[in-house]
Amino acid sequence: MSTTRKSKPFQWQRKHLLGLRDLSVAEITHLLDTAQGFEEISTRSVKKAPPLRGKVVVNLFFEDSTRTRTSFSLAANRLSADVIEFTQKASSVSKGETLLDTARNLEAMGIDIVVIRHNAAGAPMLLSRNIKACVVNAGDGYCEHPTQALLDVYTIRQMRGSLEGLKIAIVGDIAHSRVARSDMWAMTKLGAEVTFVGPPTLMPAEVGRLPVKVSYNLDQVIEHVDVINMLRIQFERLGGSPFPSTREYSRYFGLTVERMQRAKPDILVMHPGPINRGLEIESEVADGRNSVILRQVANGLAVRMAVLFLVNQAAAETTA
Ligand code: CP
User: Fold this and answer.
1) pLDDT, tens digit, for every residue of 10-19?
2) pLDDT exceeds cutoff 60 at 1
3) Structural domain of residue 30, as residue ranges?
4) How far is the CA of 273 from the centre of ligand 1 (A)?
5) How far apart are CA 83 and CA 112, in angstroms?
6) Domain check: are 229 and 204 in the same one?
7) Are residues 152 and 192 in the same domain?
8) How far apart (Å, rounded) are the C-alpha atoms in residues 316 and 213?
């Protein structure tokens, strides 16, 4: 008599995506697999599918964005949702309205999913505890940027098949980077070894407690890694100057053509954008054959479609 039992299909249960720290490997893998299923929609002549028909998605952005905002808008449109674009500058927030009052007023108009970017860490969690709509974090302070990290690991998986055993360097302004934190959670959960590389002044104080290696010398790391993710210096978040000059920074931590000659021939060069050409990465490298920077942007669309689809599905099941 056979004793094999069929395993249950994975059931996504989160109606909010606030970060990757608490997600299991199975949840991250399910998100990536769902995104892969959505890739095909973008190849159709009519690039639309019905899962969010009749739903309203609001893009609630309190910080500037090019990639994330556009990608979420397009993702929601592709899934047939109605999309509302909210910017702090053109809203009553400039007259003193609080985040919660803003969200509750939008909710009163019948929104289903809030995509929020805010300079305060924890703003998405605050919303999730106070409104009924699904909440998706599009970047909160230095805390997390989960969809950026998901599109990063999606891109690596697409190029290499798996992250298991890969060595990945994340280079630059780690201290002020929500991308570095979300990447760290996603990449290490999927089996990669992550090294944070940068000057001591741009390392977070708690780096010793994080599941990463640390290096202050890019030249000692560059030869050994399979993937290098270059971060922008977040000048808007710096109190003082963390290095003597930008030229000095580029010399020690910039991804130059000369440094690339010492890297593995098939190294993947990544950057979340926006790029400061000539500072953290030379143009020839950003546009070179190892660069997957625009592939990351393209993959962001399928990943965000998957996120919107899954949180909406979880919300429908909790109210059913
Ligand atoms: N990577 C990223 O978050 O880019 P934007 O700030 O343009 O959204």
Assistant:
1) 899 999 999 9
2) no
3) 25-144+300-319
4) 6
5) 10
6) yes
7) yes
8) 41
